[in-house]
Write a structure and sequence with these properties.
This protein has 425 residues and is mainly α. It has a single domain (14-209, 231-417), classed as Up-down Bundle (Growth Hormone, Chain: A), CATH 1.20.1250.20. Helices cover 79% and strands 0% of the residues. The protein contains 15 helices and no strands. 58% of the residues are buried.
Length: 425
């Protein structure tokens, strides 16, 4: 708790409260790490869909469907939570929905395609909404001069949650594999572990995080629909006045497409292109999470020193280097190098983006601006994996070509961030 000292926090924010906010990153990172990155995505392709030629495309389509649902619902929820000042309520509610959906994944197996689809859509939608609203608390917690540090601490702590969840999952997988059991035996247990860690680690937020915004209406939620859309449309029309934020959204829309490919298809690529076994893939992602935690933590300090924009540019160059190394990797050892480059860049780039939104968003419309930011990321989460899936489908599962095309997302993101100009504080 020494990290969250008063000099880095806004007046009135306690170290316990800041740690409770960061604990939510710890809580939900297990979901993305185990379900989307390391275990369930490969399980969906190889077991649920029995390695069908369309399996990778279907997985990317399912992720796209959940993101489309979030795009439709989040503007209403984000704007309404601004008006009613109840971001915490929605964060807790969506966490419970995500946990329930993850438990549902424990009942999937060979031939349960529709059950798997429904549970992934529900859980990923809820994860997206909860993550967005939790991020909107950042400007209420961190001192403006320490936004990068505090955001980085949250991302770094989050990767520790992913490490814990994945480590427990690896122990279960290794034990059950040693007893001759199959993926249909041990993957359901990894889903239960993921849901349990999420529930326990999210409790501090529910207990101690304060809602500091002031309600601007007492109307019922559904009656806020028209007012919310009017507010969001007004925010959208004001984007020309917020050119820096517009450039950030355009850049995030691009580079997040590449990140989404890495998050949702890393295990599939390791399995299909590099010949990794399930336990090797889990170990790979486990160690990459360590790299990501270090990267997010260290870049938080670098970011406050060199500037949010410059830190983001550095991470995009690292992403481009990662794609090049992974494309030419013919051995597992070289692929490990590429994976750890991705780890360094992943936490730091997402942390930098979140901090930049906090710097650029007007105080009264933070949830709405974070909603716009996350809507751009969700669109990218559709475009990136779907592009990858379409390329593999059209090229008879050429995973390497699909990965090379992914690098273009990072190049375009780098180009689009360059015109952004930030005032020095």
């Amino acid at each position: 708790m020494a990290l969250f000292s008063a000099q880095y926090l806004k007046e009135g924010v306690s170290a316990r409260e800041a740690l409770s906010w960061a604990a939510f990153d710890f809580a939900n990172s297990g979901y993305t790490t185990v379900v989307l990155t390391a275990v369930f995505n490969a399980y969906f392709v190889s077991v649920v869909c029995a390695d069908a030629s369309w399996a990778t495309l279907l997985w990317t389509s399912v992720i796209a469907a959940s993101n489309i649902l979030a795009i439709v619902a989040m503007p209403l929820i984000g704007a309404a939570s601004d008006l009613k000042a109840n971001k915490k309520f929605w964060t807790v509610l969506m966490s419970l929905v995500c946990i329930a959906g993850t438990v549902g994944l424990a009942f999937t197996g060979s031939g349960t395609v529709w059950l798997a689809i429904i549970m992934v859509v529900v859980s990923n939608f809820a994860y997206n909404v909860g993550e967005t609203l939790n991020s909107a608390f950042l400007p209420e917690i961190a001192d403006p001069r320490s936004m990068g540090k505090v955001s980085g601490w949250g991302w770094s702590f989050g990767y520790c949650g992913g490490l814990l969840t994945l480590g427990l999952s690896l122990a279960v997988v290794t034990l059950m594999q040693g007893q001759g059991m199959s993926a249909e035996d041990y993957v359901p247990w990894t889903m239960i572990i993921t849901a349990a860690v999420f529930l326990l680690a999210a409790l501090p937020l529910a207990l101690w995080l304060k809602e500091r915004a002031t309600p601007r209406t007492q109307a019922a939620f559904w009656s806020l629909a028209e007012e919310s859309w009017v507010s969001l449309w007004s925010t959208f029309k004001s984007l020309p006045k917020h050119k820096n934020f517009a450039w950030l959204v355009a850049s995030g829309l691009s580079f997040q497409g590449g990140i989404a490919v890495v998050v949702t298809l890393a295990a599939v690529y390791a399995d299909q292109a590099m010949g990794f076994t399930p336990d090797e893939t889990i170990l790979l992602v486990l160690l990459v999470n360590i790299t990501a935690a270090i990267g997010a933590f260290a870049f938080g300090y670098v970011e406050d020193r060199i500037g949010h924009k410059n830190a983001l540019i550095v991470t995009l160059f690292i992403w481009i280097a990662m794609v090049v190394v992974a494309y030419f990797a013919q051995t597992k050892a070289l692929f490990w190098v590429a994976a750890n480059l991705a780890g360094i860049a992943m936490g730091s780039s997402q942390s930098a983006g979140r901090a930049l939104v906090g710097v650029l968003a007007p105080a009264k419309d933070r949830a709405a601006f974070y909603s716009f930011w996350n809507m751009a990321l969700w669109v990218a989460n559709i475009i990136g994996p779907m592009t990858y899936g379409m390329i593999t489908w059209a090229t008879n599962n050429d995973q390497r070509l699909a990965l090379l095309c992914t690098g273009l997302f990072f190049v375009l993101g780098l180009i689009l961030i360059l015109p952004m100009r930030l005032q020095k504080s």
